[in-house]
Every structure is written in structure tokens, then in C-alpha cells.
Amino acid sequence: MSAPSKRPPFDPRDPLGIDDLLEPEDLAVRDTVRSWATDRVMPHIAEWYERGELPGIRELSRELGSLGALGMSLQGYGCAGASSVQYGLACLELEAADSGIRSLVSVQGSLAMYAIHRFGSEEQKRRWLPGMAAGEIIGCFGLTEPDHGSDPAGMRTYAKRDGTDWVLTGRKMWITNGSVAGVAVVWAGTDDGRGGIRGFLVPTDSPGFSAPEIKHKWSLRASVTSELVMDEVRLPADAVLPEVTGLRGPLSCLSHARYGIVWGSMGAARASFESALDYAKSREQFGRPIGGFQLTQAKLADMALELHKGILLAHHLGRRLDAGRLLPEQVSFGKLNNVREAIEICRTSRTILGANGISLEYPVMRHATNLESVLTYEGTVEMHQLVLGKALTGLDAFR
């Protein structure tokens, strides 16, 4: 009999040995994105957050394009064609730096590019996707309106026929990348007799289109957030996405983006947990490190449980997505659990850091405030609870 192999030591950063589930290609993607975020984002993110801006976003976009991070899991048209797990790992590493950076990538790839890739014509794909994959063109996604968030069916943005053209009028709100985008994917009601809501590709230099930036945010401060205003924007017939009608289009895009959030939220949680763990081992009170006290260790143990259970959940959903078996209800399961637990990890980490936890010298409060937005965008807690409630009972409680 061969002697049993020597067991590896316990790793506080990977207590369940989740890395053993990853292929070498997965690890290479993760490490590449982590290295980029460490070099290009981490030295500056506290200053960007404090100033409430994301300077150099176009340069960052091109760098992310060169990494293959934009439209990462899409095939062809300059996209990397990576696995869903690899895309998820990239989201985790980007959000470990900041939710605003992950949002830039998520909106570009999982919303704007995904909509074009899945529902666009061949001509539309060739026109937009290569430049977007390279980060030369930034995209945004216009669904939410000032008066309609969780109920997009009530949208007021409307496109009417005028000869062979469309004339688009309305407003969209809380749009990531809006003020720097070259193309906006805008969803609007129509009078074309095909079921109402259609998607339109709107070049942002079109007359009548504007995207004023939203200021005075206390969350996602290192992110460009805008309003989209369409004042009788005239579009040619080929601006409409031809392969989808109704809410199925935007909702499928949101499901794809929510999958990235399942991973990304664990990045914010990991950064906060590791900050608290390091602090607990070095901060001394009553003559010894606070990590040596039972109450602190209980907090660290509980946070580690939820963090790594969340990563396992994300990995499981990623494998299902790669196998073509992931259901929208399962995405809701992941988003609801992981973002909620990530916020709790940030809050508990803050208690370990004490007053230092509110300082931008540490990432904890920044991640906590960012996650307050992540908790409610692309589906509030209540909406995901009702999605799961309907799936469990077969009864629709939305109305």
C-alpha cells in the first residue's frame, strides 16, 4: 500500500480548500485580474471614493479590455469566450477592489454587450461588440426609470414609428456608465404591435440624447452613475434589437448580471474579512492582540463560515451556468444570500476595527456602503424573496 499523501496545512484565507475545485486556467484568470486590481485600483481607490469620481475611466476600460474582462464569457466578436466560473472569479477580484469597478465591467459585459450578443442582428454585433470588448466603446443599459424600478412593465419611455424611423422619448435613472457611454441599450414601450417593449441601440451622440451625471452619492462613489434623457431621439429602423420582444429581453440580461454579483459581493466580503483578520492579530488591548479574545474569534469564525459558503454557492451556480442548467430562481437564491451576508460581514468587520473601521485607510466602510447599493440594484431583497417564494409555493405574490 502506498503511504497517504501529506495533508496541506490549514489556510485561513482558503479554509475549505476551494482552490482545489479550480482548474489551472481558472487560477490563471483569477490571479491576472487580482494582480491588475492590486496594481491599478487599490493604490487609488480610497482617493477616488472620497472625491466621488472615477478618473481615467476610459483608460481603465481599455486596460480591462486587454485583460479580456469585458464580455468575458461571450463567444466571438473579440470576446474572450471564458467560462462562467472564470468570469465569476474575475468579478470577485474586481469587487474586492471596489464595487464600482465590478459594476463598470458588469454593465459593459453582462448587460449592454450581452443584450447585443443575444438579441442583436449580425450587423449590430459586428458594429458594436469588437470595440466594446476592447474597451474602446463603453456601453450602458437603460431600464430603470425615475418612477419604475421593481416594476419595469410600467415604464414610460416610448418609441413611436415615424415612417421607417423610430422616435424615442423618455428618461432612465441610476444608469452606470451613462455619461461616458458611446452606446446605450434602451428599453422602451412601442406601438409596433409586436408585444410592446423593445430594445434600442442608441448612439449617445444622437441629437436629443443626454446623460447628466448623478452626483452627491454616498454609495458607489467611484463609479459613473447617470440619468438618460431621450427627447425625441430619431433612430433608424435597424437600431432596434430584432430577436426579442417584451420584458423577457431585459430580464434575461439582468439575470446574467446578477450572476456576476453573486461572485462580486463575496469579493467585497473577503476584502473586509481579511482586513478584520489582519487587524485582530496586530491590534493590542489589555496586553494582547484582540484576536486572542473569545468574542473576536467568534466573530471571525462566523464571518469565515458565511464568506466561504457564499463562494461555494457562487462556484456551484457557475458550474450550472456552464452546463446550461442555471435557472433564474437559482440566480435569485445566490444574489439574495450572498449580498445580504456580505453586508453583515462588512458590518461585523467594522466592529473589530472599532473607530478605525470608519476610516478610508481601511476598506471596510467603503465596501459596506457600496453593498447597500448592490443589495437593491438588479432586484431588491423583497423581489428576490418573492421570486423564491413563488418558486417554492407555486403562488404569485407580486401583486
Rg computed from alpha carbons, rounded to a whole number of angstroms: 22 Å
What does the largest sheet look like? Answer: 7 strands, mixed
Topology pattern, helix = H, strand = E: HHHHHHEEEEEEEHEEHHHH
Question: What is the general shape?
Answer: globular
Helical content (DSSP H or I, runs of 4+): 40-55%
Domain Acyl-CoA oxidase/dehydrogenase middle: 140-233
Protein name: Acyl-CoA dehydrogenase family protein
Family: Belongs to the acyl-CoA dehydrogenase family.
Keywords: FAD, Flavoprotein, Oxidoreductase, Transit peptide
Overview of the structural elements:
- 48% of the residues are buried.
- The chain has 399 residues and is of the alpha+beta class.
- The chain is built from eleven helices and nine strands.
- The longest helix is centred in the middle third of the chain and has 35 residues, at 248-282.
- The strands form two sheets. Strands 1, 2, 3, 4, 5, 6 and 7 form a seven-stranded mixed sheet that branches. It has a two-stranded antiparallel sheet with strand order 8-9.
- Helix 9 packs across helix 11 (381-393).
